[in-house]
Request: fold
Amino acid sequence: MPPETMPHQTLSEKSFLEDTAKALKDPQLRRNFKRAMSGLVAKRRNVFPNASEFEGLREQASAVRRKTLSRLPELLELLEFNCERNGIRVHWAETTEEANRIVLDIANEAEVRLAVKGKSMVSEEMGLNAFLEEHGIEAIESDLGEYIIQVDKELPSHIIMPAIHKNLEEISKLFQEKVDSNSTSETAEEMTATARKILRKKFHDADMGLSGVNFAVAETGTLCLVENEGNGRFCTTLPKIHVALMGIEKVVESLQDLPPLLTTLTGSATGQPITTYFNMISGPRREGEKDGPHEVHLVLLDNGRSKMYEDELLRETLLCIRCGACMNHCPVYTRIGGHAYNTVYPGPIGKILTPQIKGIENAGYLANASSLCGACVEVCPVQIPITEILLRLRHNWTRQNKKRHWTDKNRLELLIWNGWKQVFSKPGLYRIQAGLLGRLGNLLPKQTPILSRWAHFRSLPRFSKKSLHRLVEEEGIDHE
Amino acid sequence: MSESVSQRSRIMKRLTTIHSRSQFAEFRPMKQPNPPSWTLKEKISRLKSTMEAVHTEVLLCNDLDFSSVFQRVVEEKGIGRLLYARNTALGSQIYLMNERTPKKLPELATYDESIENWKEQLFSVDASVTETRGGIAETGSLILWPTEEEPRLMSLVPPIHLAVLKAETIHHNFSEVIQKEKWSEQMPTNALLISGPSKTADIEQTLVYGVHGPSQLVVFVIQSN
Reply:
């Protein structure tokens, strides 16, 4: 795949709004996402049927992650020490450019031509595939979903299910056009079998395996990978070199921290009590062992994370274990899909991560793409206060962009808000207004000037005949 | 690597500076929920039902009928070439089985050389049989710590994986086994939990078994008499 055809991120509010409008008008895309997201929501609900049990579980998972943040510098040093003791070489990268260079140096040293990759969101942050291609190294995605979108030169639209925006027919057509012209693959089973055959050959031939890291255990120097397909095991076992890529926040203190994280991760992500494989790697091949890589490298990437660490609230972004539950439950993501965001991380987590990684001035607008409904906060297995962080980022963004401030821009809006303030701070006025709206509000046509601008995209609400005050006087309040 | 060293010191300096002037809530270890207390029979049945829910065949046997159950499975699956480890307890058993009734078993292969010299053979066997270190009832998982005798790829490359699990090594949950066996003092190069055959749902969320790893997993749970 020539590098110039690789997709790349363009961060711009204008293209975000355009792509959002385009996505909303694409009925196929909306059907694909609606179906997939409701499926994932239902699966998660089945695996955590008891709300209070789930609360207990996420209290534990959240406590483990908060412990990590409260001791981050110390745990990173301990992880480095124990990895090195196990024979894993540890590299540190402040930026994605530096991380790419480290991987390239390792590959060049060993004359690597073909690398197989397991799923890694950090590698997406780095744009690693395109970078390696530019330097003459072929990097093949081996997770089936990642493979499909790599063939179609796309970016992932979901962090767990990267090809979720495509339906069966679209993938079948893609396979016939770009994977195997003789292919008559039509069912998911047939296409999976075709991909298995092609990728087995790649595993067989590759000199280097790349992977992400779900958790790294400081006390034992162990890298943990969660997966269903077995491609992660192939990438980390068969090639002579394994390079693991991880954000500095993914460290945990001890092996005992793993069980609650593993359960909440797999349950939140795909509604599974556990994935097929949980792979714990504590070093390269030892004397006498017949397989496993001769070299294991761990690249620790900062890329803005140490800056997030500074602020007490923003720091909580680093609790994330990348399960994707926030996007599955997000009314915005479900309607516009992952690509409209044009970011590595879409959905709620992307809206709080991207402005912090790329800078509030470049990506702060993303924080506005939320109704603040809080569905993401309710399902987050590590209790990240996503809506609070969104509000903080909006605040920072507005301060950065003085010109955009509504008081400078829209006198009408200012007038309306002032009127609202008058009415809502004077009980007499409020009662008159409520009475009027109750009686006449539903008669207002959608075309009423000013109102029509709001109602153009929305249904008008129905006003109740009786105000809340009246209802309370008549009926009282339960549960007081 | 001097560049990486200075990157390290810059990252660490930033983190330690922030850390030294920040307030962190005191970490209170969460009370672990009480582990279930299942009888051996309950553990076996939980493991069996959980693994069967994800397409694993779980066969309950004892020391006496293992050979016949094993031979039946191998025959039913039409396995032509079976990979096994010669120098394990299980290996000796299979070796003897083969000596006594050679026609009942397929051609046997052993993973004697390092992968660099044995790749082609490994990619051409039909099935492998391995021991396991234990099981986890709660999630229906097998615990494997690959060894020199039974290397890592043995449970990954062959399309069918036959695994032998001793019933008394089934634990309640993951947390219990980490603690009881003091894993933190003795982590191997690679430790694995395997909870079914390889699978994917990346195409339209349709579940398909056998994407990269084995498409079939058969577990023989051996209960001592």
Chain A touches chain B through 93 residues (CB under 8 Å).
